[in-house]
Amino acid sequence: DTREGPVVIDERCSLTPFTYIAGPFYAAPDCHLDNVRITGGTVLGEGCRVGGEIENSLFGRFSNKHHEGFVGHSLIGNWVNLGALTTTSDLKNNYGEIRLQLPQERFPTRASSFFTLETGKIKFGSILGDCVKTAIGTMLNTGTVVDAGSNIFAGSPSSYVPPLSWGITGHSYRPGRFLEDCEKIFARRKQVVHPTMQELVSLLSHLS
Closest by alpha carbon to 19, among 32, 6, 5, 4? Predict the structure, then answer.
């Protein structure tokens, strides 16, 4: 549906029956769109696999949202995996302005102080950093920010989740285990973990 903007599908992408796309939309090479409904202006990075419903969101490279669930007005990083029925809320019940709770530090720890960022918007979903994973049925409230490398399960996360979090209880994702998991996940797409990522994980684990 190009009435509101162009629909651009790059090389080696595949679409299954009943996929609906309303522009403006761009899918980078090697994306797979499986019975998905996409509206409101969306960009998919290289190698994304998506299903369910997506509205007005940006996805990085090699991210998966292959099952039912809604992602709207959100920023999704690289190598994110959203479990089945993971859903973002992008509108408060009272139509109020959405505020983000963000850490003061450039490299936050679990003891970081926070500040409130006024978005000036009544529609804003979630920000998920690189390599974030969510369990089946995860519910993300408006303005949720999950920092890089976190694995979310056992309930809904708080408004801000520090990097390399394991679940929602404040435990840390062991850096060695995290990198081992990344190597397995990347290999499925014939990719490798870059040395700079290993250095960043080492830095974040030291701060935590």
Answer: 32
The answer to whether the CB of 125 falls within 8 A of the CB of 142 is yes
DSSP state of 96: P
Res 100: pLDDT: 96
- Detail the DSSP E strand segments found in 70-141: 70-72, 75-76, 81-82, 87-88, 99-103, 114-118, 126-128, 133-134, 139-140
Tell me the pLDDT band of 52, cut-offs 50, 70 and 90.
Answer: very high
Put simply, whether the predicted model's pTM sits higher than 0.85 gets the answer: yes
Token pair belonging to 207: 């701060």
- The two tokens of residue 45 are 């990075």
Q: Residues 173-177: contacts with CB within 8 Å, 24+ apart?
A: 173/149, 174/205, 175/201, 175/202, 175/204, 175/205
Query: How buried is 40 (Cβ within 10 angstroms: 0-12 exposed, 13-18 middle, 19+ buried)?
Result: middle
